[in-house]
Amino acid sequence: MPLPPPPAKRGARLSSDVIDLSARRAPAGGGVAAVAAPKPSVQKPALTSPAVALAPSPAVARAPLAPPIAPAPAAAPRARAPRAGAARQPKARSNGTPRLFVLDTNVLLHDPTALFRFEEHDIFLPMIVLEELDAHKKGMTEVARNGRQTSRLLDALAGVKGADIARGLLLSATGHAEATGKLHLQTTPLESNLLAALPQGKADNQILGVVAALKQQQAGVDVVLVSKDINMRVKARALGLIAEDYQNDKTLDDGDLLYSGTLQLPPDFWTRQSKTIESWQSGSATYYRIGGPIVASLQINQFAFFEAPGEPSLYARVTEIQGKTAVLRTLKDYTHLKNGVWGVTARNREQNFAFNLLMDPEIDFVTLAGTAGTGKTLLALASGLTQVLDDRRYTEIIMTRATVSVGEDIGFLPGTEEEKMGPWMGALDDNLEFLAKGDGGNAGEWGRAATNELIRSRIKIKSMNFMRGRTFMNKWIIIDEAQNLTPKQMKTLITRAGPGTKIICMGNLAQIDTPYLTEGSSGMTFAVDRFKGWSHGGHVTLARGERSRLADFASEVL
């Protein structure tokens, strides 16, 4: 019914004649004709049984709209195909088809929490995967621990009150609210013509057969095999199956760049900052408060440098970021002989940045990345010896590394823990020989008087296998070859730090020897990304090799 006109005066009442006239103007139907009938909801087909096919999505019938005609709805945004194990996944592919993920055994052995990383999507586990998990559960290796953890998670899901394996187990039943899909276990034989063309008895081929059978039975669903095994994915694609890598363990995508810890200021930096910059001096350091768009790209403890011909250079570290302003503090020049660290001076800009982090007592965690010959181990050892023997800031140096061989394993190593780790510590011996002789310059009073026995008495070599549960207080801990560590191993080592302990992680992401580990999923990449911007941590990527001209040329051309 159309509304009557408003009253002429404030607080006046409408007369009955006006209301009757408005009622006579109402349409004959007496109803509201412009309300559109609601659209029926579209429900995502659900798996009822591993052996029962999924029904295709029902067509959506539009209810006729009575006049006046409502405006046409806007086109739905095009959804991207989800990555396997991605943190944010759309519910379906761009064609509107839901997805069912079949997990390979190596995914669960790599990350037991992969069961809860697919958000609203359903997961299917073939029976052969459970058999392989059972075969890998014995032992003290990381793979065995992950296998046992996966078995415990599966047991917890199956033990929830009211759980029905035939209909699927709710992944959110154990507290993982982000996983809203279901877990389906193979309860009936799934036969496929694919197995006839593949050798029998191999677990990978049986998993491929299950994927092919599900593809035939589950109409309207994209069945996706998720595997860390490259050959497994290649075989699946050759057979016409969809296969993807497990992506959730990757800190960086292939197109992303690792945080370098340094930033070159633009050539017009001083011109833009000339009107707003503030500067003051405290002790031997000069501070600059800057503003502008460049502040958005800065991180705490990031190194900023300005180099231009004919203008004075600036090397500073970001110490404070507040709103749209940042404070830069000039660095101590470790390239000068008077500031040498155990007789070692910085030979390039990045080494000077690294020394400023290593010698700062307020920095508890330092990561050094770089190719072979950039001086990572030498810088860490020289800084450690100075602060252990000269400054007495730390009690001793503890050095460890991942024992992953480049070639074939040479077998059992006799002796104590430190003697077993000896062959892996060749880099330590080489650098200690250089530091003990004092070839790097004047090593100071301790450098002249100390012997190899005294230096080695303050250096302990520990194996990573016995780190769990320990607490190191007032130690200088060096983790060498950190690129071969998984994120979980990296977390285990870093959390060993007690009061007054400093940890230095070093590695070359171009030399990863651990299977199924890439630059994006390495524990070192994980640590650099997570500690980025922390006020007590810093990172530097060493870019220039200083070992020899032969090593530098080999790193470039080989």
**Major beta sheet summary:** 6 strands, mixed
Span between N and C termini?
Answer: 84 Å
Detail the poorly predicted runs: 26-83, 85-94
Looking across the biggest beta sheet, what order are the strands in? 3-4-2-1-5-6
Q: Helix- and strand-based class?
A: alpha/beta
Strand content: 15-25%
Shape: globular
Q: What is the share of helical residues?
A: 25-40%
Number of strands: 18
Give average pLDDT, whole number. 78
- What value does the Rg take, in angstroms? 32 Å
Number of helices in the DSSP assignment = 16
Task: Please characterize this protein's 3D structure.
This protein has 558 residues and is of the alpha/beta class. Helices cover 27% and strands 16% of the residues. The protein has 16 helices and 18 strands. The protein has a six-stranded mixed β-sheet. A six-stranded mixed β-sheet has the order 7-10-11-12-9-8, with no helix packed on it. A six-stranded parallel β-sheet has the order 15-14-16-17-13-18, with helices on both faces. β8 and β9 form a beta hairpin. The chain is globular, with a radius of gyration of 32 Å. About 12% of the residues have low confidence. Keywords: ATP-binding, Nucleotide-binding. InterPro entries: P-loop_NTPase, PhoH, PhoH2-like, PIN-like_dom_sf, PIN_dom. Pfam families: PhoH (PF02562), PIN_4 (PF13638). In the N-terminal section; belongs to the PINc/VapC protein family. Belongs to the PhoH family.
